[in-house]
Amino acid sequence: MARRALLVAALALLSACDPDTVVHKVGWFATMRHQRNIKPYARPIPPVEGAVPVAGAELPLTRELADRLANPRTRTAESLNRGQWVFQTYCQVCHGERGQGDGPVSLAGGGPFPGVPSLVDPTRPKMTDGAIYGMIVEAQRMGRGLMPRYGDKIHGNDRWDLVNYVRNLQLNARGNR
Ligand code: HEC
To answer: Does a structural domain hold residue 3?
Structure first.
C-alpha cells in the first residue's frame, strides 16, 4: 500500500513538470534531441561541392542569355491581371504603382531605398522581354546589384506575366506607341 502511494506521488511530481524539460534528462530519451539534424534557426548545411541538384535547378542566367529568351506568354487580359497582382505584391513598394520609381520604400517616394529607376522612362534604353525577365529572376547579376533577387519568390508563368505587365505599364506611359 505504501509503495503504491509513493508511486502515485512520484507520478504526480513528474506530471507537474514540463515534459519537454523532463524527458531529455532521462538518458535514453535524450537521443531524440541530440541527433544530427538542423536545429531551429540554425544555418542549413551547404551542399557538398560538386553535388548535382535532382529536384529541378535553374541554369544561371547571364545578360546575353536573358536577352535571347522568347516570351512564351501572350499579353492577354488574364496574363496582365496576374502580372498586376505579382507586381503589386513584390515590385510596387519600390517601383511605384505606375512603375515610375516612386514606391513608398524608394527614395523618390519618401523612403530610404536609393537608386530605384523608373521602369517607364522613355529616355532609358528599351529592354527586351528577356532582359526584364532577367531582372526579375537574377537582378543581382543583371543590374548593378542594387535590386534584391526575386527568382526564388516568383516562379513559372508568374515571371512572364509580370514581364507582360511591366511592358504594358511602359506602353501606357508612352501612349501605346
Ligand atoms: C527594394 C527595392 C526594389 C524592388 C522591391 C524591386 N526593384 Fe527593380 N530595381 C530596384 C533598383 C535599385 C534597380 C536598379 C538596379 C541596378 O541598377 O542594379 C532596379 C531595376 C529594375 C529594372 C531595370 C530597369 C532599368 O531601366 O535598368 C527592372 C526591369 C526592374 N527593376 C523590375 C522590377 C520588378 C519587375 C520587380 C518586382 C519583382 C522589382 N523590380 C522589384 C529596386 C527594386
So the answer is: no
Q: What is the predicted pLDDT for the residue at 4?
A: 79
C-alpha span between 67 and 87 (Å, rounded): 21
pLDDT beneath 50, residues of the chain: none
> At 23, which amino acid appears?
V
Q: Which residues line ligand 1 (CB under 6 A)?
A: 90-91, 93-95, 105, 113, 115-117, 119, 124, 127, 132, 135-136, 143-148, 150, 162, 166
DSSP secondary structure code for residue 104 in this structure: T
Backbone angles phi, psi at 104, to 5 degrees: -60, -25
**Range(s) of the domain holding residue 106:** 63-173
User: Domain containing 162 — which CATH number?
Assistant: 1.10.760.10
Q: How many domains does the chain have?
A: 1
What are the backbone dihedrals phi and psi of residue 83, each rounded to the nearest 5 degrees, phi first?
-60, -40
- Look at the pTM and tell me if it is higher than 0.70: yes
